[in-house]
Amino acid sequence: MRTVNVGLVQMTCTADKQENTAKAVREIRKAAAAGARIVCLQELFGSLYFCDVEDYDNFGLAEPIPGPTTDLLSGVAAELGVVIIASLFEKRTQGIYHNTTAVLDADGSYLGKYRKMHIPDDPAFYEKFYFTPGDMGYKVFNTKYGKLGVLICWDQWYPEASRITALMGAEIMFYPTAIGWATSQDEETNADQYNSWQIIQRSHAVANGIPVVSVNRVGYEQDGQMKFWGGSFVANGQGKLLYLASHDKEETEVVTVDLDQADAFRIHWPFLRDRRIDSYQPITKRFIDED
């Protein structure tokens, strides 16, 4: 049985990038001390979720990848012998910016990055103002502790993204995330939204027979108008919850995940075997109109 201890860091953020980064490093150390071998941080952990407004000054938060933060985390990864999954605001060149996650292996080596493919544009989530859609395709990273698939937040609503990543050999799927409730909403709407978010990701675990790890931020931002709902979780390849975080607390947790269960799940629920790949061409259409 191949198992790996996965660390999730669910935390609040401030307007101070150095403070947020230092907190993330402290929590990585805490997770490693508790036995974590892979540690995933939340989406854009270095700052407040700045996409609530369209403000040109926020482009100053971006940095190259590799760059200062990946250099720092590379040293931490090598020191602790852990894989780090770090979501950052990438400045690719003048005028081209991405929402990007970098992966550092347990020896500190930079394995590469994944650029968010699906970019939302909703009230308080104006990401299209900042981020160019990813153009590197879907990615799998072959780390010391397994093959990791990484997708980012809005990607989590798309079964096509998780399926392709699983077909590329991912043994475990990670979703760094920043999603919350408007504080003006009623509790029933809040519950419905959170349940939908969790269900869709657990369904990716079931459909592909592999574990899913979703790491969300927590706390009030946007002058108290947005409560990021936390609720980070780990589900196994049958969608069973192995860990569920609170909606209102910072939490760093280490969860043991069995990577070998995928074989049994896929044998008994042979979704990959029974895929009718000859019939899926219409999936590339925006909508299937009647002739």
Could you say which overall geometry the principal axes of the C-alpha atoms support? globular
Order of helices and strands: EHEHEEEEEHEEHEEEEEEH
Number of helices: 5
The gyration radius over C-alpha positions equals 18 Å
- Write down the overall mean pLDDT: 97
How would you classify the quaternary structure?
single chain
Q: How much β-strand is present in the residues? A: 25-35%
CATH-assigned homologous superfamily: Carbon-nitrogen hydrolase
Main beta sheet: strand number and arrangement?
A: 6 strands, mixed
User: Could you tell me the number of beta strands?
Assistant: 15
CATH top level class name: Alpha Beta
What is the level-2 CATH architecture name?
4-Layer Sandwich
In which range does the helix fraction lie? 10-25%
Q: What is the spatial order of strands in the main beta sheet?
A: 5-4-3-2-1-15
- At CATH level 3, the topology is Nitrilase/N-carbamoyl-D-aminoacid amidohydrolase
Overview of this protein structure:
The chain has a single domain, classed as Carbon-nitrogen hydrolase (Nitrilase/N-carbamoyl-D-aminoacid amidohydrolase), CATH 3.60.110.10. The model has no long low-confidence stretch (mean pLDDT 97). Helix 1 links the parallel strand 1 (3-10) and strand 2. By secondary structure, it is of the alpha/beta class. The strands form three sheets. It has a six-stranded mixed β-sheet. Strands 6-7-8-10-13-14 form a six-stranded mixed β-sheet, with helices on one face. The chain has a three-stranded antiparallel β-sheet with strand order 9-12-11, with helices on one face. It is 24% helix and 29% strand.
